[in-house]
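Re: the 380-residue chain
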Amino acid sequence: MRYVEEFRDPAAARALLDRIAALANEIGATAAAPVHIMEICGGHTHAIFRYGLDKLIHPGVEFIHGPGCPVCVLPMSRVDECVELAERPEVIFTTFGDAMRVPGTRKSLIQAKAEGADIRMVYSPLDALELARRNPEREVVFFGLGFETTTPSTALSIQQAAREGLTNFTVFCNHITVPPPIRVLLEDPHMILDGFVGPGHVSMVIGTDPYRFIAEDFGKPIVVAGFEPLDLLQSVLMVLEQIRDGRAEVENQYARVVPEHGNPVSVAAIAEVYEPRPSFEWRGLGEIDESGLRIRDRYRAFDAEAKFGIGYGAGPRDVREPEGCACGQVMTGRIKPTGCPHFGTGCTPEMPLGALMVSSEGACAAYYQYGGARAAEPAA
């Protein structure tokens, strides 16, 4: 790739759209009986709406928005625990900006900050490490959040803290993995999924092998995709070609960035610092076995859950979503954001009811930002 404009060329996009339309017609896809393609990554969801691909593509292709937004899938109980940590007078709580406005049952982190909690937005866990060095009298907690994309940087920061002997740095670990929730969705008899556009950034770390179960166990095609409009259109075309040919394979459209076997340094750091949790709660999906990560015993000194007696070590919490909030249904692709009764009225980016409206990868935020502030459509 020399210039990003090459992946946004209108003529090339039109040619791909024409090929998709011809292939959709060939396999008999229509608006009444579409091919359902789930884009797993929230970044893909935003790209689809930013470039209007949902409106330009053949009506026989329907995008289903998957659970690929780490802020969105975090249950409210974990947000509550973040607030509890942040409100401790000895704690400097550090977090990525996406998580600041996600509502808990009592308040969000930004509300806790307004009330006096020492909460600081950082761009990297290395920023949190530096705060720990500069504030030896305070406990610096980093909110470790995200899929395999951000997990290596947190792992490397924990390793660095161990080398330096920092005793006032911990991580509140909420790192999660992509494959387990996809398996849960595929095992759901009510979900209709014909193929997948696979996550690009996650795959830079883990490669393409972890998705083989999608093709081998469930007979569904998956194409790992980049984030430009031509990347996404080519990936949809590749999925449709597999469907036409009766194939189910893992293909890599994003080969210019994603290696087949991932990044060995990142994978090794994850394996050394983390181990799978027996289960982890996902918004809209409930508890999923071995879908979350926890810090291994050898690095227990850097585990905020162990140090402060919070989280899963203190026992699970039964925290329900706000009345009428449809985040779980939207996040798992069961309804569109506009099918939520609160969309654009009781839930807006300024006054969010759920996480999907505030995250930069949330489906509701994408609909609101690129589709306009529309009121909810009647649920089917």
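Residues 373-380 have pLDDT under 50 and may be disordered.
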